[in-house]
Amino acid sequence: MAAYAAHPDGKASGPLASAIDKVKWRILPLFVIMFIANYIDRVNIGFVRSHLATDLGIGSAAFGLGAGLFFIGYAIFEVPSNMLLQKFGAKAWLTRIMLTWGVVATSMAFVHNETSFYILRFLLGVAEAGFFPGVVYYFTQWLPNSERGKAMAVFLSGSAIASILSGPISGALLQIEGGGLHGWQWMFIIEGLASVLLCFVVWRRLDSTPQDARWLSDDERHSLTTIIAHEQRERQASKPVHVSSWSLLKDPQILLFCFIYFAIQLTIYGATFWLPSIIKKMGHFNDFQVGLFNSIPWIISIVAMYIFASLAARFRHQQAWVAATLIIAAAGMFASTTGGPVFAFVAICFAGIGFKAASSLFWPIPQAYLDARIAAAVIALVNSIGNLGGFFAPATFGYLEQKTGSIQGGLYALAVASVIAAGLVFLARTSGRKAA
């Protein structure tokens, strides 16, 4: 503890500082790579929408529903998956999650009708359930409070990096033909098997707890576990422990966290799944060119995520920063309805600054509020309910496009949801309640 508290600016020194540096360099790059693979396997269907329509007759409404069913499976199995993570340990469970999602992602190559499309998208959600909140919980066991916000920003940059890479990679893979398979099938096979192969690296590099980390010295291990245990005792002293998922839902703060994250995810996945279609309306582009254009908003957003995370760490008003980024997202989504395809693309680039930064800035709020004994369950609950935005956005957009030929109404709804969330975030607390 002394090493951590020695500086008035809150910066660690001595064994604790070296332990934190080692954790960051060993664990963060691995999680970023895992998240890149995870995100690509989750959203790559956005690049094959026209191919599924041509080869399998899957229309806009069916595509939107299938894209969204992923999040239903994800939501149902999110909390059980995180409970099992605590039972079997992060190393075994996170490796299992990655293996199963890689297998299902590869199987997407053999979709042959709407039913098989629905089933495999649902199973992909089941397979991936627990990964994101598992990593967030992992940070609570490995990093002190002051370091988690920056770690989350780095980790979440994986989704932005994946969005940058997925366009050109998927676009290039879509041009492969041979072996009796179409390009979209080769895309699913190659990207899915990449996740399977990465499992072996995860198994070798990941440790479940700091006590298992032989790459830390005894002093480093002691300093790290001491500060984390101290922060946990402070949370336990200020907040009672809930005993069931139903009791968690009675906490208005947890419900508030769920809604705010739902609004953020609603906008993210609305843009993610429909951006390639917007780009195609800008001109006559092939799949690779569409992929290159698709990377632009995410390149901008990854820079914005880091800038906002640094500002939030320096000027400590987390709710205000989340609200500001949500207003930026709302303005961009609303502006995308006021012009042609090119202007819409530029507006979504602006919106991306907001909704991706909001996603990373949000998580330190519930992390600071929660007792670590229920953190895994609550993080899973917030993430699973919030991620239902990933179901409603594509399903609604697909229905609107098939019925009206436009997604303008959906874009208005995204802007309104972001504005409401920006107001409600000021009601979110960043410290635990006093025990009764």
Automatic annotation (TrEMBL):
It is a multi-pass membrane protein. It is found in: Membrane. PROSITE patterns: MFS. It comes from the Bacteria. The chain crosses the membrane at residues 60-81, 93-112, 118-139, 151-174, 186-206, 254-275, 295-313, 320-336, 342-363, 375-397, 409-428. Residues 27-433 form the Major facilitator superfamily (MFS) profile domain. InterPro entries: MFS (IPR011701), MFS_dom (IPR020846), MFS_trans_sf (IPR036259). Keywords: Membrane, Transmembrane, Transmembrane helix, Transport. Its main location: membrane. This is MFS transporter. It comes from Herbaspirillum hiltneri N3. The lineage of its organism: Bacteria, Pseudomonadati, Pseudomonadota, Betaproteobacteria, Burkholderiales.
